[in-house]
Amino acid sequence: MSCFKSKYADELIANAAYIGSPGKGILAADESTGTIGKRFASINVENVELNRRALRELLFTTPGALQYISGIILFEETLYQKTASGKPFVDVMKEAKVLPGIKVDKGTVELAGTNGETTTIGLDGLGDRCKKYYEAGARFAKWRAVLKIGANEPSELAIHENAYGLARYAVICQENGLVPIVEPEILVDGSHDIEKCAYVTERVLAACYKALNDHHAILEGTLLKPNMVTPGSDSKSRAEPKVIAEHTVRALQRTVPAAVPAVVFLSGGQSEEQATVNLNAINQLKGKKPWSLTFSYGRALQQSTLKAWGGKEENVENAQKAFLARAKANSEATTGAYKGDAQLGEGASESLHVKDYKY
Amino acid sequence: MSAFTSKFADELIANAAYIGTPGKGILAADESTGTIGKRLASINVENVETNRRALRELLFTAPGALPCLSGVILFEETLYQKSSDGKLFVDILKEGGVLPGIKVDKGTVELAGTNGETTTQGLDGLGERCKKYYEAGARFAKWRAVLKIGENEPSEHSIHENAYGLARYAVICQENGLVPIVEPEILVDGSHDIHKCAAVTERVLAACYKALSDHHVLLEGTLLKPNMVTPGSDSAKVAPEVIAEHTVRALQRTVPAAVPAIVFLSGGQSEEEATKNLNAMNQLKTKKPWSLSFSFGRALQQSTLKTWAGKEENVKAAQEALYVRCKANSEATLGTYKGDAKLGDGAAESLHVKDYKY
């Protein structure tokens, strides 16, 4: 086999497969301190540890929600936080059969000589950090690589650097018992059409799987977190969910080996409802799909919840209802069973696109 | 999409899918004049055009054989030959629901600075030749790249050269209406174990699909012709189930679902081994988003050749031998082969020739 021998191989394979269980997906709650600050600012909440803890407790203790969630990605601070009554968040998750995940990258830096293209940093000491996170209860990790579409972008350099950074990160995770989510996000910014996005997505994913092969990653113990294939945010063309589904699944059929157990889409700038409806269309499509197709949503799972909460204790129950509604809707979308009837919370149809998104 | 837009796209996709039809596979009858000479020599038959024609007529008119086949790969000479009553072979095949294919590579040459590793030639003027072949009735092509396992082989250099040669050939074929069979054969020669073969196969296939992506090939209009994953020829044999497991896993790790069918080469396997291994793969319960079928040369023709021995009076029996192997392999594509094919003379005989060049 071209993969290396990890003492964690069986566990990695089992955990990766579990995350792709039908009816379940990932809640991306790994906003860094800076990024969660922006969210809080939008609802007039102070960015202090107490509030960050309160938001995550609100999400993780929503009655009935965790059954739709197979994993939650956390920021480092959250991995060590507890509920108000003193229970570690990781224990709350474990009891509900939710795998804790951890964001391990340290953001992006610009690549010299390019037109604002970036690479992701965080490899130094990554092995030791993964060990620590595993001991704290984490079982999967996430690393976000970012590419953009432009006249001359993504360049071969940006594709290569990001693909090989992802592959190196992936193998270090596997050496330390964490299933790596491989996330090569191609930003939706731009006026390009869906064909261009498909072309770039296929090129980027092909490079990623070549890099993963070169680095001897165990594909059965990885997950992929790609963008869906859509027109650019400034494009004059709109695409129906079915068209997005066709282009997305075709891109994956052309690049993602069947050994990968699950593909967990990022929501990018899509509204909560769009992200659900598109995932639903993807799962309704007839065609070869040898991997589960599910969600790893941040904004698209939390937007209405945040608005309903507004930082106030008295709003927690309503905020939790909003979260439950989105979690259930996306769970249905993983089996193509969503009927578009989720009680739309305030902001559920609101685009969450932020130009040149950094978080 | 990263694929270029070929005016033949729909046809390529339909033909590639057709070749992978359950119950069917490919007869590789594309032995060059030199290579068929060796086969004919082994049965004391003179290597002249009439004998080469007679052999292929025997194969293509064997009762019951064509329904088990979706394609036949031909050497250039054969593409233009006719049966004894004046019918073009390509027409016989077409009427039998079989797509004619054509070998387009021009053999291998050594890569300087390597330990006997090779690259395949044939790209010069390939586009024009493909056009000509399409006009003559060909609908798919084949190009054989060869790699070997050794102390330091295959080298990164030879993997890259062979993968990118295959990708360039593939796109030129698609520009001209021919479905390219991508064949990166890793020779079975050596004393390595099955794990080594698996590691090398996965590395080579990953390189091939990266090259195909770089060259904008339309994967839905291609076929893959890989070796099965087995121990080396000088190493102990393993059960068909073990070969099946390692082979399918290697494919799951490298071959995109967009590829409609995988048509295995038989390498040095005996007729019966090749069938049993293919059967085991199709019985395996696991993700297999492509058809798994055959593209056998020696493993379909060995008993037939021996039975024929160049004599007119043996044609009927020889055709019967071919039918037996075709039917057995057809069942193997469905995982229903019971190992009960009447073993023809030589069916269990290994067909391994060290460092095989053809």
TrEMBL record, chain A:
It is found in: Cytoplasm. GO terms for biological process: glycolytic process. Keywords: Cytoplasm, Glutathionylation, Glycolysis, Lyase, S-nitrosylation, Schiff base. It comes from the Eukaryota. Gene3D superfamilies: Aldolase class I. SUPFAM superfamilies: Aldolase. One of its GO terms (cellular component) is cytoplasm. It catalyses: beta-D-fructose 1,6-bisphosphate = D-glyceraldehyde 3-phosphate + dihydroxyacetone phosphate. One of its GO terms (molecular function) is fructose-bisphosphate aldolase activity. It is an enzyme of class 4 (lyase). Pathway: Carbohydrate degradation; glycolysis; D-glyceraldehyde 3-phosphate and glycerone phosphate from D-glucose: step 4/4. Its EC number is 4.1.2.13. Coiled coil: none annotated. Belongs to the class I fructose-bisphosphate aldolase family. This is fructose-bisphosphate aldolase. It comes from Brassica oleracea var. oleracea. The lineage of its organism: Eukaryota, Viridiplantae, Streptophyta, Embryophyta, Tracheophyta.
Automatic annotation (TrEMBL), chain B:
One of its GO terms (biological process) is glycolytic process. Its main location: cytoplasm. It is an enzyme of class 4 (lyase). Pfam families: Glycolytic. It catalyses: beta-D-fructose 1,6-bisphosphate = D-glyceraldehyde 3-phosphate + dihydroxyacetone phosphate. One of its GO terms (molecular function) is fructose-bisphosphate aldolase activity. It is found in: Cytoplasm. Keywords: Cytoplasm, Glutathionylation, Glycolysis, Lyase, S-nitrosylation, Schiff base. CDD domains: FBP_aldolase_I_a. Coiled coil: none annotated. Its EC number is 4.1.2.13. InterPro entries: Aldolase_I_AS, Aldolase_TIM, FBA_I. Pathway: Carbohydrate degradation; glycolysis; D-glyceraldehyde 3-phosphate and glycerone phosphate from D-glucose: step 4/4. This is Fructose-bisphosphate aldolase. Gene3D superfamilies: Aldolase class I (3.20.20.70). GO terms for cellular component: cytoplasm. Transmembrane segments: none annotated. Belongs to the class I fructose-bisphosphate aldolase family.
